[in-house]
């Protein structure tokens, strides 16, 4: 459909776009027409392409050659690479030969769209391997690259990716990963503008998930050690947007922004990273970039304490903002702040949620911080965990405000501090539970913060109850956001933590299942409490195919049901109901199979609405329904963190 629209637009201008067809199952190499398609991608690089031309790969076929594009389009007429054929067939697959390091290479050209292709690149884990490589060398400004709806998997680059001759492998120049965007060269300043990376699924790749790099990086703010990694003066890329991507089982880093100004990274999910790298990797982060914004992302399952935390404000950065993000169950912790020999400046970390992140909540590397603000975050530390709340080497100048946050510790273990910087300002935070006292803290609130359902992982569990001492207790922080995590205006209620709404009701009941009990629930079929299948702390309920799980609720004019669900396959027919209103999980796409998804189902006198994984989903009427009913359908369904509240 996109190709047809582009072609019609060009015809109106008197220029006919040309379609080049490729069919990996064709017996012989044709002329590129639909009736006589090419059967190899080897000749793409030699095509005489014009703006608006389309490279069309037949659905349901495989290509065992790299696709290398060296011709670009225009702002109104891009070159488009996409499928053709039966929409019911699988995406076309592009898999490079062993000697080809990148399955899809976009080389020094502008205005290109690549969409709806499956990409893989097997290897021996001893060389660079890339799914999609957007590369420009001595090319000046490269504009308008879009990578959309790709399924990239089994890219087997450098792993483990520790160090060679003192330098990490699989990153920096010539990196390995699912999507790598690199500005190279030494003679003509080279940079990207308006690159869009959206709605891609990336899994089982090494080393990087989505990664950007530039050789045009030297400036006064650059940490000294990078002068051994890049050689040319600063020409940053701009207009980068990374949104709506789903990454899982990543060998190293999830998403990394380097060499950019004003990049926006939002609505992405990274599940399990630093998985076998052997090096230091984090979930989502920036280095040598200014004014980066990271929001509405979810990161979990980070492995090891070699970093292993969700988010990172790294060296040579200024103006970085992390807001409205969720982090949970990362072995390394929540946040890394890593300035090295040049101060990291003017960063903001606000309205985020951390649940059961392990070793460190905030870790600071060697180096100074200037103008940092960490405020209105909610941090939950569960049973058996003993992280450092803030840990930093001695003798640093850490100009940071830590204010208006909630930190709640429950169960065994204790939260500590390793911090001696007098510039680190700890003011008006709620510290509840077994948390060591920081001598420099002022105005702390130590009463129970009054959270709706502490210990769960869904954001609604951390709204504030009516009567909470965190309501209306915050100090003003200059430059505060206009809205909180939930969209509430921050001016209405000056609360501690990431919730700025009014007090909420105590839930009718809460089921986290960590005690191994199904008390209060009725079941049919095979239903059991098992260890969390994603490796998160605690236990979950597993409902086998055909099984159900039900529980009553007290009638009220308005109710909200929250639950985490994990389907074992798409189209399973699973459902979750509240009274006479039901949400089908049958539409869960393959990218979300095996991932925990937060479901919110709200019923009021005006009707019902639902959100699954942050996106609205349909609510259907259910005859004769009452209470909460969860049905597995034709496949196994896991359920956790269920609660119902009267609104």
UniProtKB/TrEMBL annotation:
Signal sequence range: 1-17
Keywords attached to this entry: Signal
Pfam families assigned: Beta_helix
Boundaries of every Right handed beta helix domain copy: 236-379
Protein name as it appears in the record: Right handed beta helix region domain-containing protein
Species of origin: Purpureocillium lilacinum
Source taxonomy: Eukaryota, Fungi, Dikarya, Ascomycota, Pezizomycotina
């Amino acid at each position: 459909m996109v190709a047809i629209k582009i072609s019609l637009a060009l015809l109106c201008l008197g220029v006919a776009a040309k379609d080049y067809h490729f069919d990996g199952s064709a017996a012989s190499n044709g002329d590129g027409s639909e009736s006589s398609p090419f059967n190899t991608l080897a000749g793409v690089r030699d095509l005489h392409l014009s703006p608006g031309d389309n490279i069309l790969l037949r659905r349901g076929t495989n290509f065992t050659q790299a696709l290398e594009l060296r011709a670009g389009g225009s702002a109104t007429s891009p070159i488009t690479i996409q499928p053709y054929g039966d929409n019911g067939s699988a995406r076309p697959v592009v898999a490079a030969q062993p000697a080809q390091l990148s399955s899809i290479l976009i080389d020094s050209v502008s205005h290109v769209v690549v969409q709806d292709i499956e990409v893989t690149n097997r290897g021996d884990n001893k060389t660079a391997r890339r799914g999609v490589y957007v590369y420009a060398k001595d090319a000046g400004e490269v504009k308008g690259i879009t990578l959309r709806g790709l399924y990239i998997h089994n890219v087997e680059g450098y792993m483990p990716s520790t160090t060679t001759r003192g330098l990490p492998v699989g990153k920096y120049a010539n990196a390995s990963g699912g999507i790598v965007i690199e500005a190279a060269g030494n003679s003509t300043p080279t940079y990207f503008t308006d690159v869009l990376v959206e709605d891609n699924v990336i899994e089982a790749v090494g080393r990087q998930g989505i990664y950007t790099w530039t050789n045009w990086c030297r400036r006064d703010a650059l940490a000294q050690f990078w002068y051994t990694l890049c050689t040319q003066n600063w020409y940053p890329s701009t207009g980068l947007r990374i949104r709506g991507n789903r990454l899982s089982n990543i060998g190293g880093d999830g998403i990394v922004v380097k060499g950019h100004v004003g990049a926006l990274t939002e609505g992405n999910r990274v599940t399990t990273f630093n998985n076998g790298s052997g090096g230091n990797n984090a979930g989502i982060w920036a280095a040598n970039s200014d004014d980066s914004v990271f929001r509405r992302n979810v990161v979990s399952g980070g492995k090891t304490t070699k970093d292993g935390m969700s988010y990172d404000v790294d060296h040579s950065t200024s103006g970085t903002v992390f807001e409205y993000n969720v982090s949970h169950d990362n072995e390394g912790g929540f946040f890394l702040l890593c300035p090295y020999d040049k101060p990291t400046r003017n960063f903001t970390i606000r309205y985020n949620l951390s649940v059961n992140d392990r070793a460190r909540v905030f870790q600071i590397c060697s180096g100074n911080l200037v103008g940092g603000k960490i405020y209105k975050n909610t941090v939950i530390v569960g049973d058996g965990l003993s992280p450092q709340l803030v840990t930093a080497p001695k003798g640093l100048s850490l100009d940071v405000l830590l204010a208006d946050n909630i930190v709640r510790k429950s169960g065994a273990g204790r939260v500590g501090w390793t911090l001696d910087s007098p510039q680190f300002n700890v003011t008006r935070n709620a510290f509840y539970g077994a948390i060591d006292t920081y001598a420099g803290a002022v105005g702390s609130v130590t009463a129970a913060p009054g959270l709706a359902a502490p210990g769960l992982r869904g954001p609604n569990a951390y709204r504030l109850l009516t009567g909470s001492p965190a309501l209306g207790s915050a100090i003003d922080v200059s430059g505060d956001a206009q809205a909180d995590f939930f969209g509430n205006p921050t001016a209405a209620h000056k609360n501690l933590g990431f919730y700025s709404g009014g007090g909420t009701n105590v839930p009718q009941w809460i089921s986290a299942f960590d005690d191994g009990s199904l008390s209060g629930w009725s079941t049919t079929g095979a239903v059991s409490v098992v260890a969390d299948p994603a490796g998160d702390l605690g236990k979950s309920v597993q409902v086998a195919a055909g099984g159900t799980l039900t529980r009553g609720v007290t009638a009220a004019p308005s109710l909200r049901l929250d639950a985490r669900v994990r389907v074992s396959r798409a189209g399973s027919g699973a459902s979750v109901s509240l009274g006479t209103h039901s949400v089908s999980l049958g539409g869960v796409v393959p990218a979300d199979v095996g991932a925990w998804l937060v479901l919110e189902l709200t019923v009021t006198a005006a009707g019902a609405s639902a959100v699954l994984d942050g996106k609205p989903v349909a609510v259907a009427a259910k005859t004769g329904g009452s209470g909460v009913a969860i049905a597995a359908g034709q496949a196994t369904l896991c359920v956790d963190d269920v609660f119902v509240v009267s609104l």
